[in-house]
Design goal:
The chain has 9 helices and no strands. It is mainly alpha-helical. The radius of gyration is 18 Å and the shape is globular.
Length: 177
Amino acid sequence: MNKIFTGFFMAWGNFTQVPCPVKIWDEKARKWMVALMPFAGFACGILQFAAALLLDLFAHQGGSVTAQPMAAALLTCAPFLICGFIHLDGYMDVSDAVLSRRPLEKRREILKDSRVGAFAVIMVVLFFLMYFAAMISIVYSEDFISRAAALVIVPVTARALASRDVLVRKPMSQSQY
């Protein structure tokens, strides 16, 4: 049971920017850390949902024509600020590697390269445009609360699927995951 708690705090500390009360690392609990990633996603989702509620309150009180688009822009930034941009960095690395259309070995080198390539820039711009459009649809929705609930459901589901893949699938030969 101790490894479960250790794994929980490891997931919290590694996958969010929310201050973790316990700084711990135990290599034996790494699988628990990966298995408990959805709980870190839940924390991130709850924080983004709370931000959405607060921004919705301000956006409708001011009556300004720019209030709702600004709320959507802030909601677009929220998950990345909460998670410390860790997932965005991986998305950019994978975009560079996959879209390079190079042989497998070269794509693996690209994944390890710390420089940002053109494909990463293009894909992150497209990603943010799509994410902003999704946040606009939430902010302008008549059914705001139920649409904003997706801000909790999506990070939990995404991390559950990622956790499952890391624990079940065969890792790349040069990776620990």
